Amino acid sequence: MKFLHEMHEDSFAARSMSAQAARELGIRILREVYPPGSLVPDETQLAKELYVSRTVVREAIKILTAKGLVEARPRLGTKVLPKSHWQILDREMLGWQQAISYSPERLMQLMELRRVIEPAAAGLAARRRTQTELERIRSAYGEMGEGTETPSEFVGADAKFHSAVLKACHNEYFDGLEALVFAGLLASIKTTNPGASENTSSLPLHLRVLEAIEAADEQAAEAAMTDLLRDAESRLMREFKRGKG
């Protein structure tokens, strides 16, 4: 007989394995290994490929179903749904998307969304931020300055800067978009800021945002964030043209 804590540990392990299996299958769908309209392999095949039990596969499929990626029908199999059904704002899915390469079209769509959200967020942050939140924004900016020579450090600090601005809005709906902005930023900055010179040149634009929020100047914060994102968008466009050339 198993003790209660042992049963709990078994249950936790099964959930963890199902989550890992769902991540692997979700990434395959995002990469279109299983394109929309296709059937994913059956439970037996997936269990062999992923080295898990069929029960774990079934739970993983339930996770994917809840995210709008697949539809499982008895005797018909599990079908990948059209992209219009996907819960692309789901936090886990945004994490999975970091494992795949973003197309130029996808990056531009994310940039369009950021240009709608983030200037308004900067304005609200200027009006509502606390001293603690201002310190977080300032700290992230400082980390950016220290990480210009190391792209991975700069990317992380840049993402923290934008996340801190969103948090300073005190708007729970903006909080819900934080993961989306974070994912879009991480994906785009790898293209727009491949080296130290690009990192250094973007610092003054971030400083303007910081100073406007610090001064509680809502209009200046919106304008500064608009300029920052306009610069990032132009960098994306240049890189895309260079890639085609």
Instruction: Name the CATH superfamily classification of the largest domain.
Output: GntR ligand-binding domain-like
Helix content: over 70%
Instruction: Give a count of the beta strands, DSSP E runs of length 2 or more.
Output: 2
User: How many domain units?
Assistant: 2
Explain the layout of strands and helices.
Elements: H1 4-30, H2 43-50, H3 54-66, E1 70-73, E2 77-80, H4 91-97, H5 104-128, H6 131-146, H7 151-167, H8 172-192, H9 196-214, H10 218-244
Antiparallel strand pairs: 1-2
Characterization of this structure:
The chain folds into two domains: 4-85, Arc Repressor Mutant, subunit A (Orthogonal Bundle); 102-244, Up-down Bundle (Four Helix Bundle (Hemerythrin (Met), subunit A)), CATH 1.20.120.530. The longest helix has 27 residues, at 4-30. The protein is 73% helix and 3% strand. With 245 residues, it is mostly helical. The chain has a two-stranded antiparallel sheet with strand order 1-2.
Question: TL;DR of this structure?
Answer:
This protein has two domains: 82 residues, Winged helix-like DNA-binding domain superfamily/Winged helix DNA-binding domain (Arc Repressor Mutant, subunit A), CATH 1.10.10.10; 143 residues, Up-down Bundle (Four Helix Bundle (Hemerythrin (Met), subunit A)), CATH 1.20.120. 73% of the residues lie in helices and 3% in strands.
Task: For the structure shown, list the relevant keywords.
2 domains, 245 residues, disordered N terminus, single chain, 2 strands, Arc Repressor Mutant, subunit A, mainly alpha, Four Helix Bundle (Hemerythrin (Met), subunit A), 10 helices
